[in-house]
Design brief:
8 strands; Aldolase_II/adducin_N_sf; about 35% helix; alpha+beta; globular
């Protein structure tokens, strides 16, 4: 499906939903400075052809304006004439969509996800076992164990995007960038939000647990 054939009401609904989520996350202080980015896919999907709305680069996410979002294609190129630039990390979103076929990708910077990603950075993954919030990822076995990949935070975003397919685990909807933040995704915005909230709870738990064990 070409972008022009996606119904206008679907595009408007995506922008409205992203705006609501941006407001909620901003209230939690998950977008320090102008950091972080949110995206939501619209229209039909194939790995070679898809479109999504994403936060524009350099915007204060604590306020809402008509220039908060724009639509891009599978290569991160704007679908419409605009003076807006997509988030600097759009190519990472592109790769996650391409690999998973998901419906939404959310990326935030928090103190806890930064500290945990640094602590486990050399291992390349954060090990987690036995926490209740693992069930948020539809993993229900008792004392379940998972690992969350940690990628190096290169200055060149394409270098990071190239690594996504090598570490992405379809059953674990998240990837950390070391000293940077978390990317979480889901089949829709509700699921991506649930996954992100679960990851953030887990990261805070890990940090506080490490302090208690010192």
């Amino acid at each position: 499906m070409s972008f022009v054939n996606i119904p206008l009401e679907h595009k408007q609904a995506a922008l409205q939903e992203l705006g609501s989520i941006k407001e909620q996350f901003a209230a939690r202080h998950w977008f320090p400075g102008t950091s972080g980015n949110l995206s939501l896919r619209v229209g039909e999907y194939t790995p070679e052809n898809f479109h999504f709305a994403i936060t524009a680069s350099g915007k204060d996410k604590s306020v809402s304006t008509p220039s908060d979002f724009l639509f891009v294609d599978q290569d991160g190129r704007p679908c419409e004439t605009t003076g807006l630039k997509p988030s600097a990390e759009t190519l990472i979103h592109c790769e996650i969509y391409r690999e998973t076929g998901c419906g939404a990708v959310f990326h935030v910077h928090t103190v806890f996800n930064n500290l945990v990603s640094e602590y486990f950075g050399e291992q390349g993954a954060v090990p987690i076992q036995g926490l209740e919030l693992i069930k948020a990822f539809n993993i229900w076995e008792e004392n379940a164990a998972i690992t969350i990949p940690v990628l190096p935070n290169y200055a060149e975003i394409p270098k990071i995007a190239e690594l996504v397919s090598g570490v992405l685990n379809q059953s674990i909807p998240g990837i950390l960038l070391r000293g940077h933040g978390i990317y979480a995704w889901g089949k829709n915005a509700f699921e991506a939000k649930r996954h992100l909230e679960a990851f953030e709870f887990i990261f805070e738990y890990i940090y506080r647990d490490l302090l208690l064990k010192k």
